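@channel sequence for tomorrow's demo:
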Amino acid sequence: MVKIAALKDYFSSLYGDKVEVISVDGLTDFSARDELKGFGYGQPLLIEIEREGKREKIVLHTMRPGGFGHENLADRASSMLLAHSTFNRLPKHVPSLDVGVFLNDESVASVGRAKEFFLLDKYVEGREYYEDLERIKSEGKLQKVDHERVLALSDYLAKIHRVKKDDPSLYSRRIRDLLGHGECIMGLIDGYPPDMDSVSRDFFLNVEIKCVKWRWKIKEKKERLSQVHGDFHPWNVLFQDGSDFWVLDRSRGEWGEPADDLTAMSINYLFFSLQRSGRLEDPFETLFLKFIKNYLEKTGDGEILRVCAPFFAWRGLVLANPVWYPNLPREIRKKLFNFIVNVLEEEEFDPKNVNSYFET
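structure tokens (generated this afternoon):
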């Protein structure tokens, strides 16, 4: 564990002034805050400092070594450096302050003798959006703020996706990464436990084959390359009062396919509805359809329904994975696997026909 004195020296160097470290605490306890979600890459630390007579809070992130493309120090360093270089260019994103390293002697300094990298963010108050979804799942009804927030999230995506970039090779790479990146389809499949009784090796082989076919369908749609968040799900959105929010943890770069963001958020309305009633129905059906409809109206991007299948498959593989969701009932996991296969079979995703995708 890094020494407090080393953090004090580091912050003093970063700010060019004397800094006192008041406290260092774990920010996240997955077992306490969310019984269902069982895995996170690295536990963030909430650090309170004092400088120029004022106190402020900062979040220090590390990344857990291991699977999902994080085996090597260089893998984790790449992710941290990419995050730092892109967080501050996305509207409403919590600011990144610095990238640093822990050294072998437990001090903190520049990169030549790096032991592990970390990312430093500004701390902002707010409640993660998943808490709204948990409330709705429990109560079975919507509040006025739920309608306001789903439109705010959809509007936000429509706004950031208007920013385009002309880089055909980058679009092809992002579609390639969707399959082969350690955090994406193949990396997730490799991270499944080998002894699962609800799914077979042939199932995953079939999913990969279908996704390769989808790659060849969409990898040349270079005009679709847009500003994206890259991991736009309910645990990465912090709401303040009303519909004002911050976003966290932009991932895998600042440019990509808009379907990435659309599916990452919208599949969670399906996920929470499955947990509540075993199918998509109100109140979550209202939120799901409103989110999709508003986005399509604001962007005019009907083509997104013809390219989103492999992105839905990816997010479905996350939600069905017992590494992340160890307490998910077997029947729901099975319906998610059905959803993955069925959306990959469709030429165009039909938001009004979702329940048929859950069937065998």
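heads up for whoever presents: The first strand starts at residue 20 and ends at 26.
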